[in-house]
Amino acid sequence: MSSPKPPFACLAQAVCIAVERHADELTALDQAIGDADHGINMRRGFAAVAEKIDALGAMPFGAAVAEVGKILVMTVGGASGPLYGTFFMRLGAELGATPAPKRADLARAMRRALEAVQARGKAVRGQKTMLDVLEPLVDLLDGDAPRSASDIAVCAHQAAMATVPLRAEKGRASFLGDRSRDHLDPGARSTEIIAVALAATWEDQCKEQGAT
Amino acid sequence: MSGNVGIVIVSHSADVARGTADMVRQMVGTEVPLAWCGGDPGGGLGTNVGAVVMAIQAAWSDRGVAILVDLGGAETNSEMAVEMLDPELRARVVVCNAPIVEGAVMAATEASGGSGLDAVRRAAEKLYPR
Hints:
The structure holds two protein chains of two kinds. Chain A is an all-alpha fold. Chain A has helices at residues 7-33, 38-51, 53-57, 61-75, 80-95, 103-121, 131-141, 149-161, 186-208. Chain A contains nine helices and no strands. In chain A, α2 packs across α4 and α5 packs antiparallel against α6. Chain A binds chain B through residues 35, 37, 40-41, 44, 73-79, 81-83, 85-86, 120-121, 170-172, and chain B through 12, 40-42, 44-50, 71-73, 76-77, 79-80.
């Protein structure tokens, strides 16, 4: 057996694998209402993250998260690069040097990162974008109620599916007007995919460490 | 400050960016610092933050740089590129809300007459009444 990877590397690797696995699906969703490159772009970005996983694993947690954001900004090539990049860069900056962030630290940092994405995309929830999944997830984590990985998965999935009837008001899909309805938003779906991978891996790590 | 405002053209397509730059050159010759970029980091259609940063540097003028973009991702990536510049440079770069070809030609024409960054931006944005 190989030696255990540090926690951050496991999280990053889980996301990279999930994005790779769903890349074609994301591109197909984007083909319907966008420019058919979301999966291609996300695959390229997270493949670049995967190449640096050992170096990322050796960095402090917050710095590693921010570095993932920088890699995405420089490699993705579509609007999703700056949007996801901004999310992780701000999240990493907010987590700062906290060695093992707790739930409350994470919720606070995610709220700031969500606001940064809203500013970057000049968008709010309800416009058929990744924010339609991101904001409910941040709301879910905010507070004291216990949340499992399956709670997060259910929340993310329901929020993503709720973009189907919406009319797109941002990005290329907005050019379609009412014809953007009845399609799942690719950005909402990719946020769901990333959140599910992160939550499941995080929960596994907590169990291994005997935490709750 | 000397020199004219620089123009940067950012398209999803290298062909569109290059063609737009050709049209600008024909209008204003070499009086205006001009750079373009197009295509994603893998060579397909898209935009590339690193390439935008390099284009801004290539078209740099102390009087500022106006960026013309085509579709949403070009705007988002250009704004990201601006934020990656040194803070003292950042304030002298604007992303214009204008159609890329007409906006670039209008902006460059205004810049070639020695106008400042605000006037160059307004010249481009007149094409998109809001």
